[in-house]
Amino acid sequence: MQSLYSNGFEAIYDEMHQTFIDYNEEYHFYNNILSKYNKKEVLEIGSGTGNLANHFIKNDFNYLGIDYSQDMVNLAKSKLNKDCFLQGNMCSFNLKKTVESIIITGRTSSYLLSNKDVDSTLKAIHKNLKKDGILCFDFIDANRFFKDIKGGLKIKHSATFNNKKYNRDSFLIPTTSNNFMFNWESKYYETQNKKKQLIAKDNSEVRAFTKNEWEIFLHLSNFKLIEFIDKPAYMFDTYIVVAKKR
Fold first, then answer.
1. Global pTM value
2. What is the rounded distance in angstroms from the CA atom of residue 148 to the CA atom of residue 159?
């Protein structure tokens, strides 16, 4: 099984997601929130290959990115020619200096598979935020999404970048493990000269959340919930959480 975030596939991931996601639109969404609280310093957790980072940097944010995959970090550094990316685990990272705001993007919260992971991540974020720092992140909404995938759901996506055509065939189904979990099986194809070739497979267990769960998690970790924002996203029903460090 090919890792989606390393061993060369990070470059294909990068190309595909530039079709899936409008990063300029994503930047303006997060900028509007951070500007509301006068924040010009941001740490992005799940920074990936730097596509969103590029917009923050161009708009004079003091930006730092963390990703679990060293290969993703290396590609981001190479693409942007910037040394503002670090390899790290969101459950246990420790910055040299606290920051004004932290965002978790790309539904990276879905990989917090246990409540212990959620607790560890919120504690790490709280420790690395300045006083009155802002936390902002997205999550898959279990209340809506699980209705769609009950019994299993097949989804097809296509992406074209630099004259390369990619396809992803996904199958999603709820699991019987702890929390609101679902299994996401994907097959990735590249088409060249009208020939479709399988290039990677992935089978992951992923987590969705309810708003009530996050209200409790944030309260227990000394964050004040400011608002939930309903934010449409490709493939998933999501909410954005905005919270402030107590």
1. 0.93
2. 23
How far apart CA 112 and CA 139 sit, in angstroms, is: 10
Long-range interactions of 186-195: CB distance < 8 A, separation 24+: 188/12, 190/12, 190/164, 190/165, 190/166, 191/165, 191/166, 191/167, 192/164, 192/165
Write 56-63 long-range contacts (CB < 8 A, 24+): 56/27, 56/31, 57/82, 57/84, 59/27, 59/31
Query: What's the rounded Cα separation, in Å, for the pair 139 and 191?
Result: 32
Q: What is the DSSP letter of 192?
A: E
CA separation for the pair 43, 86 (Å, rounded): 10
pLDDT digit string, tens, across residues 50-76: 999 999 999 999 999 999 999 999 999
For helices 9-20 and 51-58, what crossing angle results, to 10°?
60
Strands 195-208 and 180-192: antiparallel
- Indicate if the pLDDT at residue 102 is higher than 90: yes
Mean pLDDT of 194-211: 92
Enter the tokens of residue 158: 């296509």
- Name the H helices within the chain: 9-20, 23-36, 51-58, 70-80, 115-128, 142-149, 211-220
How many angstroms separate the first and last alpha carbons of the chain?
A: 43
Query: From CA 132, how far away is CA 106, in angstroms rounded?
Result: 24
3-class DSSP state for residue 32? helix
| 207 DSSP β-pair partners | 181
H-helix or E-strand spanning residue 235: none
